[in-house]
Amino acid sequence: MSQTASNFNPEPPVQIPKPILYTGCFLQFISTTLAAKYAKRLFVTPVKYKMPKREFHMDKESTQTMIPVPEINKEVLVYSYGKSDKKILLAHGWSGRGTQLVKIADHFVKLGYQTISFDAPSHGKLKGNQSSLLEFIATIQELDKQYGPFEFAIGHSLGGMSLLNAIRDGMCVKKLVTIGAADIISDIIANFIKALTLKPIVATKMKAILDGLFGTDINEISASYSAKKVTVPTLIVHDENDADVHVSCAHSIHKALPDGKIHITKGLGHRRILGNQEVIKKIEAFLLED
User: Fold this and answer.
1) How far is the C-alpha of 267 from the C-alpha of 217, rounded, in Å?
2) Given this model, what pLDDT does residue 14 score?
3) How far is C-alpha 288 from the geometric centre of its chain's CA atoms?
4) Where in the chain are the domains?
5) What letters, b where the CB count within 10 A reaches 16 and e where it falls short, cover 72-84?
6) CB proximity list for 200: less than 8 A, separation 6 or greater
7) 9 vs 124: which has the higher pLDDT
8) Would you say residue 259 has pLDDT above 80?
9) What is the secondary structure of the chain as a DSSP string?
10) How far apart are CA 225 and CA 104, in angstroms?
């Protein structure tokens, strides 16, 4: 385990607007089941953020193509950046977009790679207002069919979780990197409900709703569960001050991996870590070492 020093303060966690908190508490007062249904709807609704200027050049210079993902009956937007037979798949996280890993993409394009990234369903430039981890996984599997094989894959947050699942299910890459990936789905739900200032029983009921929708125990697609069957060399990158995903997730995933390494940074938070040059150099060294 190693650390990257930084002069930055970690980012604060995403703040939930007070009207949402008030609505949840009101519904909980009436019925915890109603509150669970309300929370579930929020849980599967990504926030669409404005693209920052640092991503404009990737947006302008990439080739963008809409492709269907038959398994989920939706379309996604694919970004092809750079030209090379050596391809790297980049997967953004929840409420992210295909250009979010721009600094990583720029770095590897200069090294002679092509990056393939995407706006997941209801993310980025796409219409719609709901998505899920299962849709991320299905999108990655479809990209592997249409654009693969990939030399490497790099995923941030939910993108990292999705890649672990896709590789467990048969996607072939030489190496994998996850950055700020969360782990156990029921823990994610519990933390989400806590952030909404609702009772733990609401989390239990919300998980039951999701289990019913997906027809399985959704914990089975948790990162550390999938990691047990991911045999490719994998680097887990995480910041010890990540306010969105606790660093303990990184250690759990690392422990589960048959062939894993871990790199813990300090003071970079959940998103700033994506543009840190020391982190990018660490990723390069891992991916390109024999």
Assistant:
1) 35
2) 61
3) 23
4) 62-185+230-288
5) bebbbbbbebbee
6) 190, 193
7) 124
8) yes
9) ------SSPPPPPPPPPHHHHHHHHHHHHH-HHHHHHHHHHHHT----PPPPGGGHHHHHHSEEEEEEETTTTEEEEEEEES--SSEEEEE--TT--TTTTHHHHHHHHHTT-EEEEEE-TTSTT---S---HHHHHHHHHHHHHHH---SEEEEETHHHHHHHHHHHTT---SEEEEES----HHHHHHHHHHHTT--HHHHHHHHHHHHHHHTS-GGGG-HHHHHTT--S-EEEEEETT-SSS-THHHHHHHHH-SSEEEEEESS-TTTGGGG-HHHHHHHHHHHH--
10) 27
CA angle 175, 274, 222 (to 5 degrees): 55
β-pair type (175-179, 152-156): parallel
CATH superfamily, region 62-185+230-288: Alpha/Beta hydrolase fold, catalytic domain (3.40.50.1820)
Cβ-in-10-Å burial (0-12, 13-18, 19+) of 268 comes to buried
Measured CA angle at 136 (ends 123, 260), to 5 deg: 125
Contact 131, 162 (CB under 8 A): no
- For residue 13, the model assigns a pLDDT of 56
Q: Closest by alpha carbon to 252, among 274, 269, 228, 268?
A: 228
The pair of structure tokens assigned to 15 is 């703040």
Backbone angles phi, psi at 78, to 5 degrees: -105, 135
pLDDT in tens, 131-172: 999 999 999 999 999 999 999 999 999 999 999 999 999 999
Say whether pTM exceeds 0.90: yes
**What are the angstrom distances between the C-alpha of 231 and each of 147, 166, 171, 175, 253?**
22, 12, 11, 9, 13
- Locus of tokens 């939706």: 74
